[in-house]
Amino acid sequence: MSALVASVLLCLVSAGCYAAAAIAQERVAATGEAGGGALLPLRRAGWWGAVALTCAGAGLHVVALAFGPLSLVQPLGALTIVFALPMAALFDRRPVGGAGWRGALLATAGLAGLLSLTGPPRAETLGSAQRPVLTGVVLACVAALVLLARCMRRPVVRGVVLAAAAGTAFGMASVFTKAADEDFEAHRVGALLPALVVIAVLATAGMLLSQASYRGAGLAAPLSTVTIVNPVVAAAVGVVVLGEGFRYGLAGGLLAVAAGAVAAAGVVVLTYRSAAGEPDAVAREIVVTAHRVPAARVPDLRPVGALGAPPAVAGGGTARSATTRP
Length: 326
Prior knowledge:
globular, disordered C terminus
């Protein structure tokens, strides 16, 4: 097996791991209890399974970079969006639909085009004076997106904004990971330790925010947003701070803008698709949660004076009436 074939296979398996992790996160969000707090997923085995799959996907992606060129490995990472939809349809028996496929293909094609146009990294490194500034900027951006998400009433829109915050955290974690690797090779221990702390904080924030983004928003829209924002943020830092650019000069920059617009259009399509399915998502959460709610806590919402016995509740027993009957 050639190194190129090995790199492609590793990329495909890595994308599959990322897709499976997203599906696991969406399931945890769909079956979670309302008001459980941001740390509730830490008590769920499914969430830790998603963390393990994410780590496996990241590790395979790094190994793929050792066998193949960056121009091939990075665009193939966009296949996560394409893999996630049929996998979710297979596991949950939910049809993808034409809008879902169109949005996924647009987002994947746009992201792959954007990544393929990113130029090779230069020898410049992240300076010690730049690191605290970037850390403060990214934390402020993430906090602003979280506050913006709290103002959103539609679960899908709120999920997309939270996913953008998660992608921002992940993208900056990638930037600091590269800086930490350079510090390790240069034996700069004083700079390495703070970089590792920043990576841990950003990676943890990214995982928790991505988990929160799936709450009531479905799978496709938050996943595509995280998958797109992550490399875009890292590439933006490379262009603005490290002096990197795009291939083919000005023409490559214009093509990158067009590719970004295509990816954004895919996210919009997936967002509208998820918004149209919000009643189904809410009903799904109610059905799952109903099996865990004691009968005495389920109110009877029938009109006062309705004839007949109280309705049966899943799991046995009857619901206690929350109204006063004469």
